[in-house]
Design brief:
By secondary structure, this protein is of the alpha/beta class. It folds into three domains: 260 residues, Aconitase, domain 3, CATH 3.30.499.10; 151 residues, Aconitase, domain 3 (2-Layer Sandwich), CATH 3.30.499.10; 177 residues, Aconitase, domain 4 (Alpha-Beta Barrel), CATH 3.20.19.10. It is built from 24 helices and 27 strands. The strands form six sheets. The protein has a seven-stranded mixed sheet with strand order 24-23-22-21-25-26-27, with helices on one face. A six-stranded mixed sheet has the order 7-6-3-4-5-20, sandwiched between helices. The longest helix is centred in the first third of the chain and has 17 residues. It starts with a helix and ends with a helix. Bound molecules: alpha-methylisocitric acid and iron/sulfur cluster. The site of iron/sulfur cluster (SF4) has 11 residues, from loops.
Length: 653
Amino acid sequence: MGQTLTEKILDDHLVEGDLETGEEIGIEIDQVLTQDTTGTLVWLQFEALGLDEVQTELAAQYCDHQTYQFDFKNTDDHRFLRSAAGTFGAYYSRPGNGICHNVHKENFAAPGKTLLGSDSHTPTPGGLGQLAIGSGGLDVSVAMGGGAYYIEMPEVVNVHLEGELPEWATAKDIALHLLGELTVKGGVGKIFEYTGPGVESLTVPERTTITNLGTELGATSSIFPTDEKTKDWLSRIGREDDYVDLSPDEDAEYADQITVDLSELEPLIACPSMPDKVVPVSEVAGEDVEQVIIGSCTNGAYEDILPGAKMLKGRTVEKKTEMVVAPGSKQASEMLAREGWTAEMMAAGVNFSEATCGACIGIGHVPGSDSVSLRTFNRNFEGRSGIEDDNVYLCSPEVATAAAIAGEIVDPRDLADDLGDLEAPEFEMGSKYSEGMGQEDPDIIAPDEAVDDELIKGPNIGDVPLKDEMGSELSGPNLLKMEDNITTDHIIPATQDILMYRSNIPKLSEFTLSRVDEDFAQRALDSDGGFLVAGENYGQGSSREHAALCPMYLGVEGVLAQSFARIHKANLFNFGLIPLEIDASDYEQIEQGDDIEIVDDVADAVRSGQEEFTVRVNDEWELTATLDASERERRILADGGKLSHTKKQAEGG
Ligand code: MIC
Ligand code: SF4
């Protein structure tokens, strides 16, 4: 039987297990990436594991999320990261050089290689044939130390693209269409592999917009085959030697197939406040728009910004609307400047931000209260923009620019009809060979150019807390009952005032779940242990392991949820919190404050492979909860988390 492209790459990297759906496999990781807000823990854990040198082909540390350095704490974090990269042998990309996914794509991403990154949008370079997966930081530390990365073999789903996009519909609309159809949990446990004649019509920047948004589907990864378009893109950035031909076998078998006829797509928009609340733009036309932002890791390439620049040529941004461009990388900014587009856009009334995550996580350009903001980003979770009552819509650069011109949401086709002289911008590829552009990225420090050879820890850099081995008894109150689709932004928000404590767990823990219940942290600390209860898809969104580590620090012992998001579930194991699945009817019945007791000898049951656990509530009624875990995950859990487990293994325990 033939293989899918995913299976081929996994087969090449397999160190443990078989490629059977649902079975745990261990794979070798070629490249790792990390960023500033998850990277501090990655290196602290690398150090705590007693590791002293990067073992993967390549490791890269980016500073992208909090680059404004409002406070010495951020600057200290960046200095620590530079010193860690220098000491242990990673590339270091300076603050302001751009978002990890964009800068990695430009400098290092390579077809056929595996990439593990401590950021949920790590799958972005799947658009050029790299098998890239997001994970918690500790998994990245271990992979960087030469350890395998373990996942349940996902289902490989074929997304078959037919036809070509009509005018004004874009790659963003392909991704939004899938989100509308499949929802934010539609991709859990799956890898989406794109095939079909429609693939040829899409360039690498368009493909990476689609693979980037695969994360919003909850997918483990998304991948495209390679072809002339991939080769062309690599040669435009001077890396044609990295090209390899990659495609699935003709008789490859997929778990499922979804067909998308590109010619039927139209401009789409995701409404507040979930990326899957997708409707045609015309359905929400007429809403006043106060802010428009083009950029982020989703649509921050030169090729993503150009259409807006072309649409604005000879026009101005409507007076009541503010428009900001936040390029994904400094290279994209430099290309726009050298080609004259920055000046054109500025003349039209656009402001430029440095290349940073910034506004995407509520750092800068926070919308006004109860106002509409249109963004080309990938996430619009409530409050993520930095204000609780936000109304953030997600759309393509074309739709965003149309709104900036009109001052309201408008289908660009209607705007073109109204204006009479607005043409759909032709897609145009950029090149690093713009006149005068240097070929090397001056903001990247290679391991052999390192400026530090020992770790520099300022007062904000703390230690990584450890958990004790699991005991035989596990009981405590239900500390908080939550609904479906609780995001990691609810658990540990990423806004400015909180983000600077990512390397200081005791302080950061004070903010745990404060967006759901401001008294939570104190209640958890006062209680001797306890549980969290949630609906479906608990922990969707970010890879931040702080969303498991902070509850652990506050004494939480486990989470009872109807289902979990993949990365967050792995993070719960990594920090010794038991993730138990419960039925919808039991979820309905259980109340906040109820006493929860796991009846079995827990540590024993976890180690011995027991799947069903009896949970007694208030000493009155019982429910059955399921632990879906591999043997390896069970050992990690029982040992009190992956750090203790890995150390124990090294000591021969
Ligand atoms: C996000 O988009 O939520 C983030 C901020 O990039 C996170 C990483 C983090 O929390 O540091 C992610 O996607 O993993
Ligand atoms: Fe940064 Fe936003 Fe992309 Fe996350 S989703 S990496 S915060 S730009």
